[in-house]
Amino acid sequence: VQLVESGGGLVQPGGSLRLSCAASEFTLGYYAIGWFRQAPGKEREFVARISGSGGSTYYTDSVKGRFTISRDNGKNTVYLQMNSLKPEDTAVYYCAATSRGFGATRQGEYDYWGQGTQVTVSA
């Protein structure tokens, strides 16, 4: 069971990136997926999550209106479109899968984690 994030990089403030979370060896559509991030010197925090069907989404307040989580279960992939990026969005971004459904909110409720992808927002 493996989750692999990609799409990170260096972007200027106001720019955009799209992160991908691809699964191997299991069907991602059976799981709710969350995106989390960890900035230097800070604890890992929740960013967004999406239900297995894609019909429900939830965002932390600081990214509402700027980030969009989506999924393509046919491609076994979940995306995080990030627009209007700010320096404070700089972090390692992780995707995680939970079998506990869309209501899972705590990081400990997520069963599988990727290795993370670095996002740096800087002029």
Overall description:
The protein has 123 residues and is an all-beta fold. It is built from no helices and eleven strands. Strands 2, 4, 5, 6, 9, 10 and 11 form a seven-stranded mixed beta sheet that branches. Strand 4 and strand 5 form a beta hairpin. The chain starts with a strand and ends with a strand.
Provide the fold topology:
Blueprint: E1 2-6, E2 9-11, E3 17-24, E4 32-38, E5 45-50, E6 57-59, E7 67-72, E8 77-82, E9 91-98, E10 112-113, E11 117-121
Parallel strand pairs: 2-11
Antiparallel strand pairs: 1-3, 3-8, 4-5, 4-9, 5-6, 7-8, 9-10, 9-11
Radius of gyration: 13 Å
- The average pLDDT value, as a whole number, equals 95
Structural class: mainly beta
Give the termini separation: 37 Å
> How would you characterize the largest beta sheet?
7 strands, mixed
Instruction: Please report which band the strand proportion falls in: under 5%, 5-15%, 15-25%, 25-35%, 35-45% or over 45%.
Output: over 45%
Q: What's the order of the H and E elements?
A: EEEEEEEEEEE
Dominant shape: globular
Low-confidence stretches: none
- Give me the number of helical elements: 0
E-strand count: 11
Share of helix, binned: under 10%
Summarize the structure.
With 123 residues, the protein is an all-beta fold. 0% of the residues lie in helices and 48% in strands. The radius of gyration is 13 Å and the shape is globular.
Name the features.
mainly beta, 4-stranded antiparallel beta sheet
